[in-house]
Amino acid sequence: MVNALHQFERYIELKDIIVKSNGRTILNIPHAIVPADRITACIGPNVEPGKPPF
Question: Does residue 21 contact residue 31 with C-beta atoms inside 8 Å?
Fold first, then answer.
């Protein structure tokens, strides 16, 4: 991911992001770089239909 830093003028860097709900890890992002001037979404399975995980 180091090369990705040079592609963006402004960026957001995420490190060691972990979200847990009821003792279960529902999001684990060790490292990510996203451009600051774009919309970015995190997409995954719905663990409990009808209930938001956050």
Answer: no
